[in-house]
Amino acid sequence: MRYDAFPADLFVKNRAKLTAVLAPKSIVILSSNDIMPTNADGTMGFKQQTDLFYLCGIDQEETLLLLYPDAPELHLKEILFVKETSDLIAIWEGYKLSKAEATNISGIQNIQWVENFDAILKTLAFTAEHIYLHANEHIRNASFVETQNDRLAKKIKATFPLHDICRVAPILNDIRMRKESSEINALQKAIDITEMAFRRVLNFTKPGVYEYEIEAEFIHEFIKNKSGGFAYTPIIASGANACILHYTSNELICQDGDLLLLDVGACYGNYNADMTRTIPVNGRFTPRQKAVYLAVQAVLDFASELMNPGIYWVDYQKEVERYMEGQLIDLGLFSRKDVEKQNPNAPLFKKYFMHGVAHHLGLDVHDVWDKYKPFEAGMVLTCEPGIYIREEGLGVRLENNLLISSTGTQNLMKNIPIHWEEIEQLMQAVK
């Protein structure tokens, strides 16, 4: 693996958080993700199922985790099933974990080959009453692909129809919202790599370069610094493309006088950075660009100060929207009289700021969460206001990653340039 190993204590602690809240006589079963096909004999790169990784740290396909806190024997309370290797697999696919290595990573002593899973589960299931299974219960999930966990759930429901089948996702979603120090360190590493790449891009960007050339500068710096690559499909959006929230084709030429919106993050150890910066292609903001930029930065500062323990996401979003409305009025996009006459179900600010200002961050870029629970210390969220003026072909978004503490927030991206003066200075230094 490219990243430095996590301490096994992290996964031991994560499992303890889960098992502490299970019903008595409960078994939890999670599976790794599939290696997804493309066409012919092609495959995509492997991406581990994040709940499984959270609980055991194994970053390998064909992995199963079984937890049974009330098992009748100590060695059956935690069992990790991994893929048994062979000379043929070693030749064609490369090295796979040994049992000893799986123990060192996960802290689980009982390591079995995955072929033994069915027989061991059958032995244990009849002493249990509840079986907790996984499904992708994310509020933004819109996938129709059947996963290994989906297939496993079908099989177990058919095999043990009289057991109480339970959902583990709501429990893990709640637990994962609060990060341990090792997780925060991994996030900071991903952010630091993102910073190095952004500084590289500041030196590279100029009129006439293609958006995809800038994308290449990012991935070069990411891979060079042990990143697993992009945390998500990067947005390299020049000019009017910045008004397309999920613009990812990254195919046009950056024009003199345009702004360039960069929504990019590195992945490190399966933890993800999520940064947005907006820079002038030629190294100088126009007066109008600067005015819009400063308005977005004012909202970012306000929203960062507002993100404190105890506030609910829904209330947080509304407060930021109210502040944003004032900034849009100051930019001349509409007036206070217009606001007094607006349809309350279609507020005017939505034309220029139409998305959420924050989401949880961690093993998933849009990390698991519960929008109806208040912010707490230990949570890491993005803060990403933006103003998109389509009639002017002008879009500005700024995004930091914030760690909530008992006394406020800590900006994990404080070292990444954001003030317009510093941006211009860094870009002009190489012109």
What are the key terms here?
three-stranded antiparallel beta sheet, 431 residues, six-stranded mixed beta sheet, 2 domains, alpha+beta, single chain, Creatine Amidinohydrolase, Creatine Amidinohydrolase, Chain A, domain 1
Any chance you could write out the topology, listing elements then pairs?
Layout: H1 8-19, E1 26-31, H2 50-56, E2 64-67, E3 78-82, H3 87-92, H4 99-106, E4 110-113, H5 117-125, E5 130-133, H6 148-159, E6 164-167, H7 169-176, H8 181-204, H9 211-224, E7 229-230, E8 235-238, E9 259-264, E10 266-268, E11 271-272, E12 275-280, H10 287-306, H11 313-330, H12 336-341, E13 380-383, E14 386-389, E15 394-397, E16 400-405, E17 408-411, H13 420-428
Parallel strand pairs: 1-5, 3-4, 5-6
Antiparallel strand pairs: 1-2, 2-3, 7-10, 8-9, 9-12, 10-11, 13-16, 14-15, 16-17
Helix pairs in contact: 1-2, 8-9, 10-11
